[in-house]
Specification:
The protein is of the alpha/beta class and 377 residues long. The chain is 35% helix and 12% strand. Helix 2 packs parallel to helix 8 and helix 3 runs parallel beside helix 4. The longest helix has 19 residues. Bound molecules: pyridoxal-5'-phosphate. The site of pyridoxal-5'-phosphate has 14 residues, from helix 3 and helix 4. Pyridoxal-5'-phosphate (PLP) binds next to helix 3 and helix 4.
């Protein structure tokens, strides 16, 4: 038993983050402005992509990406079921139908075969989720898709992941959506971004995130020569990012190598301390392509996952569940009892161990010791 509660995913903020936020506060300009533009440039440089458009969340990023891809009423969007509700909701916001597909039992991610099984003439898009930070092979998925079907990647877990060709997740040429939510690998409290190659789509995203205003209009209040009364080009949304968040984000981006080492250390400690105990880890967990946003484990049939979770929580270990499968929730069910055998099996046995860049080696050892004790080994 630990004396203090170990939270599931606590961000690592230090004096540099504090100084950055103060600098923006004192500048008098906390909305979207120069910090946001610099953060976007730095992200584009880091990911090696021509365009990064920041938005208010990954949920907004997914929604806007489907929107600019032409997804609308009656279209089908293939998504995994073992994911956060945002992945499916992005389709629903546009009147499209999320169609759930099964996953691979080793990677916990969608595969080209499972996607292929769900394609119909109405399929307009696929949203692969790089679950936990494991990179889905989007090139292999591209090969099985009809040409007109777009791929929008849910990379909420995958800041720091790499595709199998070594490029950073984000640089596939698809619309790739990141989350900067509180517990994500790069944390700014809230926030998201879309990495992409197309100039036209980037321009439209920049406009849509701010009421459909022309992109130069954001600074109409600060620039004495730039006073423009914007003409609204299309009905947009209020889904922009802010300079306060961007200032945090720029520091968090620079600290990614440090954070990634901490996550790797935690993964290695879990792998060595908990292997050969009837616990299955996600494949690739200790490989450099994996961002280790989550460290999910799947227990054997004989184990009661909910009882283990309860015991760990009583011992102050903030284990968690990612996720309750969406296809089993009535709101996504469309009335037909869908069976996804791998997802159904994994979903009752999966549990996520605490992992964050603010964990110490002692915290990690506490988790290993308590899991072993709960399992009675
Ligand atoms: C966190 C998360 C999102 C949503 O991110 P927000 O920035 O909170 O909107 C979407 N998909 C997955 C898989 C996530 O984990």
């Amino acid at each position: 038993m630990r004396n203090t509660y170990l939270p599931f995913g606590k961000p690592n903020f230090g004096p540099e983050e504090e100084a950055a936020v103060l600098r923006v506060l004192r500048s008098g300009w906390i909305g979207m402005g120069p910090e946001t533009l610099k953060f976007e440039e730095e992200l584009a440089d880091h990911l090696q992509v021509p365009h990064v458009v920041t938005v208010s969340s990954c949920t907004a990023a997914l929604f806007l990406s489907l929107l600019v891809s032409g997804v609308g009423q009656g279209d089908e969007v293939i998504v995994p079921s073992l994911t956060w509700c945002s992945t499916a909701n992005a389709a629903l916001y546009l009147g499209a139908k999320p169609v759930f597909c099964d996953l691979d039992p080793q990677t916990f991610c969608v595969t080209p075969q499972e996607i292929l099984a769900k394609i119909t003439p109405r399929t307009k898009a696929v949203i692969p989720v790089h679950y936990g930070g494991y990179p889905v092979d989007v090139e292999e998925i591209r090969k099985v898709l009809p040409r007109e079907v777009v791929i929008v990647e849910d990379a909420a877990h995958a800041f720091g992941s790499r595709y199998f060709d070594g490029k950073r997740v984000g640089a596939s040429g698809n619309l790739v959506c990141f989350s900067f939510y509180a517990n994500k690998n790069l944390s700014t409290g809230e926030g998201g971004a879309i990495a992409l190659f197309g100039q036209t789509e980037a321009d439209r995203l920049r406009s849509l995130r701010q009421h459909g205003m022309p992109t130069h209009a954001w600074n109409r209040f600060v620039n004495p020569k730039g006073m423009v009364v914007p003409s609204i080009c299309e009905v947009g949304y209020k889904m922009n990012y802010t300079d306060l968040q961007a200032a945090l984000g720029r520091v968090q981006l620079a600290r990614q190598p440090e954070f990634s080492q901490i996550r790797l250390g935690i993964a290695r400690e879990y792998l060595s301390g908990l292997s050969e105990m009837g616990i299955q880890f996600q494949s690739g967990l200790d490989r450099s392509f994996h961002a280790r946003h989550l460290i999910p484990v799947v227990f054997e049939e004989k184990h009661d996952r909910d009882a283990i979770l309860g015991s760990l929580r009583e011992r102050n270990i903030g284990a968690s569940i990612h996720y309750a499968p969406l296809h089993r929730m009535p709101i996504y069910g469309h009335g037909d009892p869908l069976s996804l055998p791998q997802t159904d099996r994994i979903a009752t046995k999966i549990l996520t161990l605490p992992v964050s860049a603010s964990m110490s080696p002692d915290d990690t050892r506490d988790v290993v010791r308590n899991v072993r004790e709960v399992l009675g080994v």
